Protein: FMN dependent NADH:quinone oxidoreductase
Amino acid sequence: MTKILRIDSSIKGDASVSHKLLDRTLARLTAAHPGAEVASRDLSAGIPAIDGAWIGAIFTPAADRDAGQAEIAAFSDTLLAEVRAADTLLIALPVYNFGVPAQLKAWFDHLGRNGETFRYTEAGPEGLLKGKRAFVVFTSDGTQFGSEIDFASGWVKQMLGFFGITDVQFVHADQLVFDAEATLKAAEAQIDALAV
Structure:
């Protein structure tokens, strides 16, 4: 059975373009995979950034953690477990100031754990979340997808690949300020044409 993890990250919530396009993408996926299990995490309210306390918690053996460290590690472990359980990731990527929203960056930071999502080998880093796929919905007011000022899509693809997730498809509704209606129609057509 297909297991889908939906990650929303826009601070505009249900009113965001990325949320609406994620709805359509999810509908397409669930129509292609009847009975798929869907889990969701909305990052819009923000999640704790990693810091020195996080490093201390993660690098302390579970049996030796104090109560504060256990709480920090448990949150990070929950995010990791959600990704591990999924076959398919569905990620909203609204572009803020040419880059990834802080809350989505923090989510990736929590996942970036040596020995959990990647490991270093003599041949270089190896991703440990192989066999999964990802659909990323890129939205922006003015940043063109894949342009020299798009510091978001390439970064997300790099992070997913670093974790071993190399089957990544993008849908983009970019430069919405210029012609929102045509851009949205084009994005919807991309969703309808996805290899699901």
Notes: The mean pLDDT is 96.
